[in-house]
Design brief:
single chain, Lipocalin
């Protein structure tokens, strides 16, 4: 009887330890469809903190993202991004993304041929000021113990 109770207790503990997602996965289809297409980042700003240096998405300095091209496909949540600035490292990659009901933009930068479920690191940004031809992604970073916004301004390319 003790073995049966012990096994039941272990089983309950194993099945109750399900990992929880950091971000809500319920999609905001309207916002997703609105960003479908090709976009360019026209500026990267740090309101109130113009003197900081930010390594965006662990790829390059945030200023290297000005002029970068992004393609978002809303029906399968895939896309591509590429840095195009001549004085920055060359970089391009497939991405996977979605916008959830809280207005959060969830982004994973993939290596060629890699599946999104194999990528453990992703980024959660907030969508702001969304129109038909522009939107902003806002990242929050810690600078000296103070949370600071990094604002990526997107402009529709086509």
């Amino acid at each position: 009887m003790k073995k049966l109770i012990f096994l039941a207790a272990v089983a309950v503990m194993l099945f109750s330890c399900k990992s929880a997602s950091v971000a809500n996965t319920q999609l905001n289809r309207d916002s997703q469809v609105a960003v479908k297409g090709e976009w360019t980042i026209t500026s990267v700003n740090y309101p109130g903190s113009e003197v900081i240096k930010v390594n965006s998405f662990q790829i390059a300095d945030s200023k290297c993202f000005v002029g970068s091209t992004w393609k978002f496909i809303s029906n399968n949540n895939k896309g591509e991004m590429a840095l195009t600035s001549y004085d920055c490292p060359a970089f391009s990659s497939p991405i996977t993304w979605y916008i959830n009901k809280e207005g959060q933009f969830i982004l994973k930068v993939l290596d060629a041929g890699e599946k999104a479920k194999k990528v453990r690191d992703g980024y959660i940004l907030n969508v702001a000021n969304q129109t038909e031809t522009s939107f902003q992604l806002v990242d929050k970073i810690n600078v000296g113990g103070k949370m600071t916004d990094v604002v990526y301004q997107f402009q529709k390319s086509n």
